[in-house]
Design goal:
The N and C termini lie far apart (49 Å). The protein has a single domain, classed as Rossmann fold, CATH 3.40.50.1820. The protein is an alpha/beta fold. The chain has helices at 28-36, 53-66, 68-72, 83-95, 114-121, 126-138, 168-171, 182-185, 207-219, and strands at 13-17, 40-44, 76-81, 100-106, 155-160, 192-196. Helix content is 35%, strand content 15%.
Length: 234
Amino acid sequence: MSDTNSSDVPKDLVILLHGMLRNKLDMLPMSYYLEDQGYKVLNILYPSRKKSLEDLTTFVHEKITASPDYAEAPQIHFVTHSMGSLVARYYIEIYKPDRLGKVVMLGPPNTGSEFADWLSETKILAPLFKKIYGPAGQQLKTTHKHIDGAITYPLGVIAGNFSINPLAPWVLPGEHDGIVPVERTKIEGMADHIVVTSTHTFMMFNPSVMKQVLTFIQTGRFLRDPESSTEETA
């Protein structure tokens, strides 16, 4: 009798979802990193500017179920950046995947962003905001009511507190990453939350963030470094 080849053992699948105005190339370093750690990865490109969150969820569902790795994976994890986090929330609420593992969100506007409020309420910028950001952009405002409620799955949130956006100090309250305030990344029911020194735009390229993503997928908690800026939520 021959030994079972380890390559024949099904691997967990990690689904990557990029943010608004971004594409799957932004998630490639994360993809390579997680593949090196032994995971299958599905890095999805979706039309962030052209559809509502509900329609984007349908689009993403079709991509996920068409993947041969989806059918074989013991567990399905999500790693998301920015608005991709809202797509993941909608996907989980609507389709309720029975093999759902961990979810890690990077800079998620879980309760919107005052930056979206400002762009949509400033008379000269509002038409441009609507044209560039599309239907889903209107769903990033702090007043928008999303379709799901409290989180009931293992969710880890990583927020940034470094900004290169010159307008951000005039628009965003408290700590922020230039686009989303730290407080807006939080959501009821999350398992863990940390703050890292990173901008919103480049968070997914940060090696320390990648390590935190892996740690949460493996353990359900983030690493705690007493010398770094972190915040813990029970």
